[in-house]
Amino acid sequence: MEKMSNQLQPEQGLANEGLVYRALQFNVLITVMNTTMFNVAIPAISMDFMLSPSEASWVVMSYSVMFALGTVTYGRLADQFELKKLITIGLSLLGLGSVLGVLAPSFGVLIVARLIQAAGASAIPGLGMVLTARHIPLERRGRALGKIAAASSLGFGLGPVLGGFVSQFFGWASLFFITLLGMMMLPVYRAQLPDEVRRRGHFDVAGMGLLALAVIGMLVWISTGNDWFLFGLISLVLFWIHIGRVQTPFISRQLLTSRGYVPLVVLSFLVFFQYFAILFMVPLLLADIYQLPTMGIGFVIFPGAFCSALASFLIGRWFDQASPIPFFTGGIGLLMMALILFSCLGYFSFWLVMAFYLLAAIGFTIMTTGIPREVSIALDSRQIGAGIGFLQLCQFFGGAFGVASTGRLLEYNTQPHVIFNLWWEGPHVEYGHTFALMVTISFFALGVYLLHLYGQFRKQNQDKDEEQEDLQLTK
């Protein structure tokens, strides 16, 4: 009962909740756009610095690796330090990296700027969820998370449009000015976030280092296909051994073996796997089949992201008022439906591509709104920081794995002997094959969620049996 009470009641309310969440929405929007904007600018960057494709990929890869590590690190630090101070550090690093990027005279300086940017930007999504779990009561928590999901969805769609426009007319270096705007919200956090009591604890530097090596090894293996997989796997095994030996590990084994938490992490991994695969394939499909320019691709993606952002507000309220089961089932079903339709009719019209992407974006928004809310309920208040940080690490890893896997499948499916999707009748059949293979991930996600529901059902029955036994003993 004490644990449930801690989950339902916030530690301390916010004096001006609306202002704080408007600032948080703006920063989440900037953070997500910072990822998608630079994707469309890579050709221009490659031309300016005379880069090969493998070298240019580090513009995205360096940011991705640091962002993945930063999300879990900030989440872990949130268990010991004030959110106000951590957000201040994050926004300051984001600003510093942006200024350095504007002035970058060489490719090496550009990579350093992206690393500093990621070290700061990674504070925003994770700490925003920790802030929600710590300071917003359960009856309004879904609505608050819906606001964050809305900004994230809008950023996914607005990033390519704005990035293409700014790069084309003002140069790719001007993109750093957009991320510099994120510092405007710093006074809001400094004034509105409550002062928190610092929690004593030891920060597990060795554990963080081993996890960093594991993540770097896995991500580099995904992107290059070389032997870094073995390096990442060894680091992961050492990390597991290490956290079982230290008193205050970077991520506790108790968290990583929680029956209520782990299925949600796996489900989130699979959801991001699917959506990032779609987000990666759709621009390529629009360019290869419909010959759309960068601006046109952005405008095809934008309606889905914009509509899902508007829907996020309603989705958050619905999660607060009803059972999450139909929403999770619907979110997984929309992603599955979008992939099936892409695999059958993606070649037919770019208007249909726009509609299919809308389905995927809304399904993704449902899941990204609901999963953090369920995690905040499943975990003890002392585990929320580390739990949400690790959740976001796995989300990002799922997205990276989806993109890399999709790229390899597209390459393999160009071989003439690969024919198994008979519904695709247009050119570039490799897209039809790859979308069809992605449907299997949707079925796997549905299976994971059903197992999670079964585990919850068993736990509820066990709790009822224990309560009845306690009543009989008291009588």
Largest sheet geometry: none
Can you name the CATH architecture of the largest domain?
A: Up-down Bundle
Q: Runs with pLDDT <50, length 5+?
A: 1-9
Overall, the morphology is: globular
Q: Percentage of helical residues?
A: over 70%
Number of DSSP-assigned strands: 0
Strand content: under 5%
Membrane topology: Multi-pass membrane protein
Protein name: DHA2 family metal-tetracycline-proton antiporter-like MFS transporter
Subcellular location: Cell membrane
Keywords: Membrane, Transmembrane, Transmembrane helix, Transport
Structure notes:
This protein is an all-alpha fold. The chain has two domains: 2-203 and 250-465, Up-down Bundle (Growth Hormone, Chain: A); 204-249. The chain is built from 19 helices and no strands. Helix 8 packs antiparallel against helix 15 and helix 14 runs antiparallel to helix 19 (429-474). The radius of gyration is 22 Å and the shape is globular. The two termini are 20 Å apart. The model is unreliable at 1-9 (pLDDT under 50). Residues 20-459 form the Major facilitator superfamily (MFS) profile domain. Keywords: Membrane, Transmembrane, Transmembrane helix, Transport. The chain crosses the membrane at residues 20-44, 56-74, 86-105, 111-132, 144-163, 169-189, 201-222, 228-248, 260-286, 292-315, 327-348, 354-372, 384-404, 431-454.
